[in-house]
Specification:
With about 425 residues, the protein is of the alpha/beta class. The protein has three domains: about 1-155, GTP1/OBG domain (Spo0b-associated Gtp-binding Protein, Chain: A); about 160-330, P-loop containing nucleotide triphosphate hydrolases (Rossmann fold, 3-Layer(aba) Sandwich), CATH 3.40.50.300; about 355-425, GTP-binding protein OBG, C-terminal domain (GMP Synthetase, Chain A, domain 3, 2-Layer Sandwich), CATH 3.30.300.350. The protein is built from eleven helices and 18 strands. The protein is elongated. The N and C termini lie far apart (about 65 Å).
Length: about 425
């Protein structure tokens, strides 16, 4: 089964919490703090596997989580780091944030392995918070939270040249003749269900990668038929061979077909429609003498517009070599760098903000309510009875913008701030 799309949930590991403990041994009645640090949470890593050519494995399992870090222990013992989770994907897989569609990573070219979500850093144990004035710190730092994300995986095949055309114009026959690919060939009136890749080997080491893009139909750019699902596969190609049935063996007008396919390209992505294109007028073995030459009619229509037209037969091989050498030489004039999609979504920056939801409301004169899951979590881990812990929580309120929000609502010195059953007086 060919699968070129999947939607999955990924989550890195939470950092382990720092530990609060004190050295208690015989003859050492007042030992100092010895709480160990928490371990780092595991990362979510994507890696290219050359043995894969489909995303079918992600259709059966949709949730992938790295291990959390272990909490710190007494006697300054460091918690174990959580194990990373490595997701293997075929080359050409593009990872997108599900809600916005922004690109997180393109697993192509030199990008063979990338950390998508980083595990949380482990919290420091109370051994780090001892000072001359506070020799018995009862505070340890909580581990950083995990990062989580829904992502869409899209496989965009990597080929130099794409074969375009309506179903049953002879693309699969052409591909099987000029490459090492073995597509299923029959008189189908629908379409190939998966892109077929093949390598064109010319003499003296010349050649290129060719992809048979599944047949498009009118309305493909709007999602009609299978066209919209497969248009993504030509986004990496540098140029296209547009195959048409020059013989009109099925009653289709080749000129009309070319205009329809190019119209679908422009609707889907205008930049695609502007890439170099050569027309392969196929099935010339079915054109009989005495008939009006349809190839000349195609040339008269499109060569003035800059499209080179070749008369070929995928069955007999006539004209095929001339077409391939022309395409090979054209590729040399184009940018040789592979088409890589730039990163648009940066989890480290965007999830940091998303991880700190809170609400600040003015309940009545002099009373303000601050709530939010992150705040509740911090209160559960913070020892507000210690000077160090209280200062840590104050910095948290400042860094998250909560203090700024309070001032916007008109908080005054001496006003009461309530957070989950706790009350504080506000002072600058």
């Amino acid at each position: 089964m060919f699968a070129d799309r999947a939607k999955i949930f990924i989550k890195s590991g939470k950092g382990g919490d720092g530990h609060v403990s004190f050295r208690r041994e015989l003859y050492v009645p007042n030992g100092g703090p010895d709480g160990g640090d928490g371990g780092k949470g595991g990362d979510v890593i994507f890696e290219v596997d050359d043995g894969l050519n489909t995303l079918v494995d992600f259709r059966h399992r949709t949730k992938y989580c790295a291990e959390p870090g272990e909490n710190g222990k007494k006697k300054r013992c460091h918690g174990a780091n959580g194990k990373d989770i490595v997701l293997r994907v075929p080359e050409g897989t593009v990872i997108k944030e599900s809600e916005t569609g922004k690109i997180v990573a393109d697993m192509s070219g030199e990008n063979r392995r990338q950390v998508i979500l980083k595990g949380g850093r482990g919290g420091l144990g109370n051994q780090h918070f001892a000072t001359a004035t506070m020799q018995v710190p009862k505070y340890a730092q909580p581990g950083q939270p995990a990062q989580e994300l829904w992502v869409n995986l899209e496989l965009k095949v990597i080929a130099d040249v794409g074969l375009l055309g309506f179903p049953n114009v002879g693309k699969s026959t052409f591909l099987s003749r000029v490459t090492n690919a073995n597509p299923k060939i029959a008189n189908y009136h629908f379409t190939t269900l998966a892109p077929n890749l093949g390598v064109v080997d010319l003499s003296d080491g010349e050649g290129f990668v060719l992809a048979d893009i599944p047949g498009l139909i009118e309305g493909a750019s709007l999602g009609a038929g299978l066209g919209h699902e497969f248009l993504r596969h030509i986004e990496r190609t540098k140029m296209m061979i547009h195959v048409v049935d020059a013989s009109g063996s099925e009653g289709r007008d080749p000129i009309e077909d070319i205009y329809k396919i190019n119209s679908e390209l422009e609707k889907y992505n205008k930049e695609l429609s502007e890439r170099p294109q050569v027309i392969a007028a196929n099935k010339t073995d079915l054109i009989f003498e005495g008939d009006q030459d349809p190839v000349e009619r195609i040339r008269a229509e499109f060569e003035p517009k800059g499209y080179k037209v070749f008369a070929i037969s995928g069955v007999t091989g006539d004209g095929v070599q001339d077409l391939l050498w022309y395409v090979n030489n054209q590729l040399k004039t184009l940018d040789t760098k592979p088409i890589i999609f730039e990163q648009e979504f940066f989890p480290e920056d965007e999830l940091l903000v998303a991880d700190l939801p809170y609400t600040v409301e003015k309940e009545e004169d002099g009373i303000f309510i601050v709530e939010g899951p992150k705040i509740e979590k911090m209160l559960g881990y913070t020892n507000l009875d210690s000077e160090k812990g209280f200062r840590f929580f104050q910095n948290f309120l400042k860094e998250t913008g909560i203090l700024d929000k309070l001032e916007e609502l008109g908080v005054q010195e001496g006003d009461t701030i309530r957070m989950y059953g706790l009350s504080f007086e506000y002072y600058k």
